[in-house]
Write a structure and sequence with these properties.
Blueprint (H helix, E strand, L loop, with lengths): L10 H5 L9 E7 L5 E7 L1 H10 L3 E4 L4 E4 L8 E8 L6 E7 L25
Parallel strand pairs: 1-6
Antiparallel strand pairs: 1-2, 3-4, 5-6
């Protein structure tokens, strides 16, 4: 089983995150080894802090209005390896080691398995 690796950040780095009017920021989750985009979910200040402190991905569920740690119920855990903030401060990117069957709640490995145009699946 992979190990959790907390990421040390400064208050200035945390203050640079630009949350939307709902207090949320999109977080893109990318597989560290392959570069494959696994999912996008929403974070608020607390879930960003939990993710960085624990080394596991934490998100804010807009529908359930609660925090969730990826893999707590499914076993498909994500262990953070690196964390990035984009140039505008309004999007986060986490590279992770994905454990289990993948990131998507549908059973697909990545949430991005459908494509536009001819063909119905992404490579």
């Amino acid at each position: 089983m992979p190990e959790s690796t907390p990421i040390t950040v400064t208050d200035d780095q945390l203050d640079a995150v630009a949350y939307n009017a709902d207090g949320l920021v999109p977080a893109i989750i990318q597989e560290a080894d392959t570069g494959r985009i696994l999912m996008m979910a929403w974070m608020n200040d607390e879930s960003v802090r939990r993710t960085l402190e624990t080394g596991r991905t934490w998100f804010w569920s807009r529908s359930r209005q609660e925090y969730w740690c990826k893999g707590e119920t499914s076993g498909n855990c994500q262990f953070v390896r690196k964390a990035y903030l984009d140039c505008d401060g309004d999007t986060l990117l986490f590279t992770v080691e994905q454990e289990g069957n993948g990131a998507c709640h549908t059973g697909e490995y990545s949430c991005f398995f459908r494509s536009f145009g001819s063909g119905s699946a992404a490579g």
